[in-house]
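Example complex used in Figure S2.
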Amino acid sequence: MSSNIPTDLQYTKSHEWVRRMNDGAVEVGITDHAQSALGDLVFVEVPDVGRALRAGEACAVVESVKAASDVYSPVGGKVTAGNPALASQPELLNHDPYGAGWLFRLEMNVSADSSGLMSAGAYEKFLADESK
Amino acid sequence: MAFIPHTPDDIVRMLEVIGVRSMEELFDEIPAELRAKSLSLPPPMCEMEVARLLTERAALDGRPLNFIGAGAYEHHIPAPVWAIATRGEFYSAYTPYQAEASQGTLQLIYEYQSMVCALTGMEVSNASLYDGASALAEACLMAIRSNRASNSRRILMPRAVNPTYAQVARAIAGNQNLTFESVDFDRTAGRTLLAALQAYSGQDFTALVLQQPNFFGCLEEVDALTDWAHDNKMLVIAVVNPTSLAILSAPGQWGAAERGAAAAGQRGADIVCGEGQPLGVPLASGGPYFGFMATRMQYVRQMPGRIVGRTVDVEGRPGFSLTLQAREQHIRRSKATSNICTNQGLMVTAATIYMSLLGAQGLEAVARSSMQRTADLVAALCAVSGVKKAFSAAHFHEAVLLLDRPAAPVLAALARRGLLGGLDLSERYPELGNAMLVCATETKLEADIDAYAAALAEVMSASRAAA
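Predicted assembly (599 residues):
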């Protein structure tokens, strides 16, 4: 099953996406592939503003009727916003995973290393390999 | 008869698939010194021999007249409770596998949850836990997950909380880096004073545990203590006796009434737990028990255990199903809200039938009668020379008495007369001196109380003469 992978974003092996914002901050969400695998989401827990996150740290939970899964921070940084709309409308994450369904925003650490993030092409290949 | 369905051939084939030579090899992870060498069991017995052995052992308990409570309470259980609970349709220890195929069991648990919510004044209840003590441990862990305003993982645990519960909470939650700060009780009143808590004002604690009535049977000033905890950004974990809730204020209403309007959502305990045994479960040598737990809807995803919900099927017909399972261990594994909890299906069945049969009025009658019997008992025993009441606070159906000599030999002498006179507190609370905890429920008649007072007077004067 092919999924939507926008080319202007970067990706992780745990199926998060990262968007570079104009102000230097980054926005994080889960990919179309991830939301589709989870099924209908019923609850989303986002990190508190001000929380310092290490790259790879579990910091959000997306819960469907089948499973509750952790979301990992793609880079190190400090949380500047959690998507407030998800508390009452978790389905936004299913309908618009790269837009209205964003999870949180981070101010990256100066020393943050984002070299491990994948391009859209690399993520597409990763998904193809994973499904083999 | 072997209850394991695998044939030796099955076992060999399964071991082959996972590449292991023998069943023994599966246990290689466990160091040799931790493994039992031999169970040194006696030879097997047939059913008739076992029945005889157990009957003889049971008879050794005798049929003592019991005045011990301390967390386990002897109440009258109407005959239909266990006649119905042991019907084949209900007779299961847990929620069944393929739960939705057992609509009757699910409906019963749903009704149970509704009753627990009504008793505690909370919004949501789980399907029960092992017992009151482990329910408190789970409540402490849940508070850590729920209170985002606190980072300390520290919990205030008054010494007036049942010491066994506090010990179990320390054993379970202590291994998950929670620490507990003891808060002393007032020696005169027998309860936790606001002044004792105020020493911790402004400090980061995750939660305050409040037991009502406390271990001494005394009533805590829960409204003031709850408001203090909320003012200091702590959650309140209530440990309550379900019988007492028929006449005491529900934990959901703890706190000053005017606060409810002023600070919406801040009134009342945040997590409520306790021991369900008083609701139709008989006293037996150490068990079984069941824990109950309820909370605010905002914390429902942090609550351990299972929850049954009511819903409709595709044709709009009402039905019941397990809900909020996504955080249970069969899905979340090590990240589950708890990996040591289960529900106590059969005990919950009995409790639900007990509450249905008694109703609100019946439960209130049990509570009032127990409270009156204990008042009568305390008055009768304090009339005996060398016995006095330890604390001034109002109490429910238990009280601490002080003797003019150590309690243990007195209780031993009473036991020889077929009387369980109370719990010796000298080990847990040495600072109280010769203290014992006594309890009378509605099962104790006036004649029983008179018999206890007379026996105590005899024992006390006999030992005085001997001295």
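Chain B has two domains: 65-72+360-466, 79-352. The radius of gyration of chain B is 25 Å.
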